[in-house]
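The data layer described in this paper is built around a simple, fixed record for each protein. Such a record has a labelled line for the sequence and another for the C-alpha cells. For reference, a complete record is included directly beneath this paragraph.
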Amino acid sequence: IDADADGTQDPSEQGAPDVTVQLSNGASTTTDGSGFYSFGGLAPGAYSVTVQATAGYTFTAQDRGSETTDSDVNPVNGVSADVTIVSGQTYNDLDAGIYRMGKLGNRVWHDIDGNGIQDAGEPGVSGVVVALTSGQSTVTDAGGWYTFTGLISGTYSVQATAPTGYQITQINMGSDDIADSDADGSGLCSAVLVAAGQEILTVDVGLYLPPTPTPTATSTPTPTDTHTPTPTATATPTETDTPTATATATDTPSPTPTATATSTATATSTATPTQTATPTGTATPTPTSAPTPTATSTATPTMTPTQTPSFTPTSTATATFTPSRTSTATPTLTPSRTPSPTPTRAPAGLPWLLATKRDTLSFDQNDNGRFDRGDVLTYDISIRNVGSVAATNVTFQDTPDGYTQILPDSVSSSRGSIAKGNQIGDAAIQINVGVLAAGARVDIRFDVVAAGLPVGLKTVRNQGVVLSKERPAVLTDDPDTAESDDPTVTFRQLTPEIKLHKRDFLAVDQNNDGRPGAGDVIEYEIQIVNSGGAAAQAVTLVDSLDVNTKLVAGSVSVSVPATVDSGDRLISAAVGDIAAAASVTVRYRAAVASVLPAGVTQIRNQALVSGGNFPACA
C-alpha cells in the first residue's frame, strides 16, 4: 500500500492482502497477508501480470525509482509489461503499488453578523472560486459547499477568492473548528495534512459585507488629558489530570519483500513489498518537553458505555460483548525496545506539540495473549504542549487500521469535544481540543475491536495526527521504540521473520556502457530484515560469487559487529542476533574477470541466510 503515493516502496508501507493477481497464461492467485504472490512451475517464455486493485484504491505511478522498489503495472489497467523467463530463472520484481485517495473541503458562507461563526440561518455563498495551492480549483455550489477529491496523501492549503464587495470574516473564532472560519484576511487557510483515504471536511471560509460608510463633518478635536493604564496580569491555570492507563511498548516492523533470487523456477513477487533503508546519519533531535506539573488528581476514564456496544463481524452473525475495565489488561504482543530519543528543547515564543500513543490488549476472549477476531485494543494518546505559548485550534484525528472497528461510545478525552468516533459506523476519530496552554496536556483513549483479520496478518498499525493553527501537523509516536514519529504497531505473533533484499550497482564501468563487462567492478548490497515480533538468533549470511567474478580484497563491510570469513568467491558473515523490526546490511565488491568466456551474457549471484530460530531463506 503506497501510503504517500510516490510510486516507491518505503520501509513503513505494508503489503496489501487478498489482492487478485492473474498471469497472462490464465493462472490466478491472491496475495497473502503481507502482500506477496507467486506463480510456480512456469515454462520458459514471456509473461505479464494483471492486478485487480482493492475497492477504493488506485494504482500508483509506474516505474518510479529502482526495479526492486517501484510499481510495475500500468496505473490505468493494472497490467505489467512482459517479462521473459528462461529455464531455471526466478523473477521477483513484478510489483504493484496501490493507494487510497483523500478528500478535502467544506463551505463558504455569508457571515451576516461578522462574528466569525456559522450561525443558524446564515446562507452559503455560491460561485466562489476555491483553489488548492497545489493547483486544483473549483467553485462553490448553491449551498456554498466545495470538495476536492482524488487527493494523494500530503499537505494542502485552501485559497478562497472573495467576490466583489465581500471581505473575509474573522479567523478561528470560538472553539468549534466545524463552525468557524479558517481563512486569513487574504482568503488563505492553514495547511492541512490529508492522510491516505482520509476525508477532512472542516475547512470553512466566512464572508461578510462591510457597511457603507456615512460621511461625517470634520471638526477640530479638543485636546484631552490621557494617561497610560497599567495592565493587569492574569495567571492562566494549567490542568494536570493524568489518566491512569496500562500500556506496553509496541514495535514497528518493516514490511517483508521477497528476496531477489535467480536460481529457482518459481516466479515470486509482491503487491507492495518495501525496502528497509539503512541509516546513514545521526537522527536530528526533536524538542524535549517541559517538566510535567505534578498531577493533583488521577482520572481513570470508564470505557464501559451505558448500552453494551455491539458489532456485526459477518453478514450472518452478530456478536455482543461488554469488555470489563476492572480486569488486569493483557500486554500486547510487542517486544521491548529502546524508547524514542528525547527532544532537547522547544523554540522560544512558539507552541510545540508532542503526541504519543500506546496500545493495550484490554479484552482477550481466549486469553491467548494475541489480538484475534473479537478482541479489543485500547489506545492511549497523550498530547502535550511543551512550548512557551498556547496552541490554538488543536485537533486530533485518527483513522484506525482497516482490519479493526472503533467501538461506539469508547472515545474519551480530558479536554475539548468529540466530533467523531462515538457513533455506530464511525470509521475515524476527531476530537476538537481547542486551545492547549503552554505546559498543558490532553489525554485521549479509544477502543478498537478486531474484525475480519485475514489469515497470515502479522501486525495491526495505527497512527494519529495532531493539527493546530500555529504548527505543522504532528504524527503520534510510539514512545517505546527507538524511532521517532513511528506508528504504534501491535504484533499478532512473537516470532522472527527474515527476508533478504539484494541490490547490485556497477561501481566501475571501464567502457561506460552501463553494463557489467570484462574488468568492471560490481558492488552488492544485501539487507537482512527481521520484520517479525521477536529477535532472530544466530544469524549467518553465506554468499557464493559468480564463477566469472572475484571478491575485491577488503571490500566486505557489515553494519553491525560481525565475524567475517571470505575467499575469492565465498563470503560468510556471522552477524549474531537481529532484533525485531531491525535489519543488518552487508556490502562487498566483486571484480569481473578480465576475459569472459564466449556466450556469457549475465553475472549471477545469490545469498543464503540461516539462524537458530527461523527457516533458512535465499
Observations:
- The longest strand covers residues 353-363.
